[in-house]
């Protein structure tokens, strides 16, 4: 519940995440923010709380886009300052989200050189990411640091004869090892998710 200074409930958050605001002057919603202000807020919050944003993947990670395969560091300027978000919404880059739909990439983030985890999948693919990076498991979103051997991770596959048709399967983890690398992330509109070789990843 959201209350005013007198303790009166002015809004209730229901399970389906619909918010009924009686006094809209009390809140500023995201659609009233400019892109620059939104990025500035996310930049500040990312340093001090686990919002699921800017929990990164390693340099060299390849992501399918509407403009071809792009390495994560090349969505924006790879040489930006550490803990910096860059607005790249004008590049009109689209990625597949957790539902297989095309979604626009809004910003690009560089987190510096940090400890990473290399997660090996049963199909041989290896994903290197930060410990806080979240993947969709059979039990919902989990940080990489909380994922264990033989845990099942959600993967979205596309029909080779019809790329608009996709389905979900699960690949289990065969090995986990620590490493160290430059880490980057992207912010994706709406579902805040994207696919890395089909692996459902939170941005």
For this entry, give a set of tags.
mainly beta; disordered N terminus; 203 residues; two-stranded antiparallel ribbon; 15 strands; 1 helix
Mean pLDDT: 83
Structural class: mainly beta
Give the strand content: over 45%
Q: Per the principal axes of the C-alpha atoms, what is the gross shape?
A: globular
What about the largest sheet?
Answer: 7 strands, antiparallel
> Order of helices and strands, N to C?
EEHEEEEEEEEEEEEE
Sum this structure up briefly.
With 203 residues, this protein is mainly beta. The chain is built from one helix and 15 strands, in the order ββαβββββββββββββ. The strands form five sheets. Strands 3, 6, 7, 8, 9, 12 and 13 form a seven-stranded antiparallel β-sheet that branches. It has a two-stranded antiparallel ribbon with strand order 1-2. Strands 4-5 form a two-stranded antiparallel sheet.
Detail the topology: elements first, then pairings.
Blueprint: E1 2-3, E2 9-11, H1 35-48, E3 57-58, E4 62-65, E5 68-71, E6 84-87, E7 94-96, E8 102-121, E9 126-130, E10 134-137, E11 140-143, E12 152-159, E13 162-188, E14 193-196, E15 199-202
Antiparallel strand pairs: 1-2, 3-13, 4-5, 6-8, 7-8, 8-9, 8-13, 10-11, 12-13, 14-15
């Amino acid at each position: 519940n959201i209350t005013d200074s007198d303790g009166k409930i002015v809004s209730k958050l229901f399970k389906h995440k619909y918010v009924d605001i009686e006094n809209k002057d009390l809140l500023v919603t995201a659609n009233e923010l400019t892109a620059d202000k939104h990025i500035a807020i996310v930049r500040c919050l990312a340093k001090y709380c686990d919002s699921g944003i800017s929990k990164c993947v390693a340099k060299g990670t390849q992501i399918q886009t509407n403009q071809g395969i792009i390495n994560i560091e090349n969505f924006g300027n790879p040489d930006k300052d550490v803990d910096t978000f860059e607005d790249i919404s004008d590049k009109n880059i689209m990625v597949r989200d957790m539902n297989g739909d095309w979604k626009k990439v809004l910003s690009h983030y560089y987190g510096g050189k940090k400890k990473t985890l290399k997660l090996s999948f049963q199909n041989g693919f290896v994903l290197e990411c930060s410990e806080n990076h979240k993947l969709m498991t059979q039990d919902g979103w989990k940080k990489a640091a909380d994922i264990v051997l033989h845990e099942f991770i959600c993967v979205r596959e596309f029909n080779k004869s019809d790329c608009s048709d996709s389905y979900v399967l699960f690949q289990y983890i065969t090995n986990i090892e620590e490493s160290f690398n430059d880490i980057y992330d992207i912010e994706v509109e709406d579902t805040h998710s994207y696919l890395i070789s089909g692996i459902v990843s939170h941005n």
